[in-house]
Amino acid sequence: MRQNTRKQTNYSHERTEDFKTNYYIDGNTVRRLEGEPEERRRRQQEKEEEQKKRRHRHAAKRNRERAQRMNFGHVLFCSMALLLIGGVCVTYIQLQSGITSRTKSISALESEIADLRADNDAALKRIDLSTDLDAVKERAMGLGMKFPSPEQIVYYSVEEHDFMDQHSDIPEK
Prior knowledge:
Layout: E1 2-10, E2 15-24, E3 32-33, H1 37-68, H2 72-130, H3 133-142
């Protein structure tokens, strides 16, 4: 095996590079180049890429290990977040429970109001039916009451109110 050094000139870039070439003899055949420059460059690039990959893998492994470790700050942060979320959930459930109980009490009060109105209407009908207006009229006439004459009737207009306050006596005519 023999090593030669030769100079190669690249005219397009006008630079010279020194390359070592290795020759070997295989029986009675012609010499063949073993380490051509492109092949060497390719091998060198493959080695560099493999080293980069190894460094990246090692850095990624360190980062994964560092991420898997739990320090006090991380545990404290997670605990506080858990307590905060738990507090929010408990408060939400309490508010929902309060709303439900208030809704039930409102429904009970509404049904009680409906029952009281029904009782009130029934009592009013009983009073109306038990009062004989003709008997009241006869009794009033017997005590000296009379129907008013048209001169005795005074009309008042009420604006925007359904009642009127009387501040003085009604004049006699």
